[in-house]
Write a structure and sequence with these properties.
Length: 249
């Protein structure tokens, strides 16, 4: 059993609400479940697993373990994204045109239903919608974003939105408040602008190959505060860096 302050416990002392984990299991599930109390599933972005598989993950995890997941790329990314190389579902040329950027299409609605089914099997509380940098704040994209979330069957889930690129902070804040979204952000780039529980994703200052220094982890601790918050590392040494960060808490 992990006690308060134990760096392999995955959370900070009782009542803090600060949860630390990785974007992906970063190794074996068994070892991850022993060391952390939250994970952000990445597989669901490329190709959602079978509902039965997600149910097995939930059954293997401790009762207090939390799953979050990334929404399927068919919702957020257009078919010319290089991430579609990992897509296994066969789509027609007409279907591919209807993918991404929150379009009001049958394909996008189908992708959300698949994402939702997996979220339910994982008993997840949050779903992340990570947008590509090319999804810029044009009037058309804002209109699509509004229509998608206004009509979405959330089933009690907290929808987390990670805009990337040149989105003005005031627009991000107002859209999150209007559409009841939590803002996902790298805390080294800007603060979380909306959401009862901030959602932080550490991409690394120099990209995926970045290894966080002790000084950066100390600064991260200052920026995220005592919680409540979710902090996910998304770099090549994510597991090591997440444990090093937990040791500071």
């Amino acid at each position: 059993m992990h006690g308060p302050g134990d760096p392999t416990g995955g959370s900070v002392g009782a009542g803090s609400g600060l949860k630390v984990g990785c974007c992906g299991f970063a190794g074996s599930q068994k070892d991850y479940f022993r060391k952390f109390r939250v994970v952000e599933i990445q597989q669901t972005f490329y190709e959602p697993p079978r509902v039965e598989t997600a149910g097995k993950w939930r059954a293997a995890a401790p009762a207090d373990f939390e799953f979050t997941l990334k929404a399927w790329q068919l919702i957020t990314h257009t078919a010319d994204s290089p991430t579609y190389r990992r897509l296994r579902t066969e789509l027609s040329e007409a279907d591919l045109i209807e993918c991404g950027h929150f379009q009001d299409t049958a394909v996008v609605r189908f992708a959300w239903q698949r994402t939702l089914e997996v979220a339910r099997a994982l008993q997840a509380r949050r779903v992340l919608f990570q947008c590509p940098a090319r999804f810029t704040p044009t009037p058309e994209n804002v209109r699509r974003l509004r229509r998608f979330f206004e009509n979405l069957d959330r089933s009690g889930l907290d929808c987390v939105w990670e805009p990337r690129g040149s989105w003005p902070p005031d627009l991000v804040r107002s859209l999150c408040e209007e559409l009841h979204l939590t803002h996902a952000v790298d805390p080294f780039r800007q603060p979380c602008l909306a959401g009862a529980v901030p959602y932080y994703r550490l991409h690394g200052g120099t990209g995926y190959s970045h290894r966080f220094t002790d000084e950066e982890l100390d600064e991260l601790k200052r920026r995220v505060g005592p919680g409540p918050a979710h902090v996910f590392f998304n770099n090549v040494t994510m597991k090591e860096d997440a444990l090093r960060f937990l040791a500071r808490l």
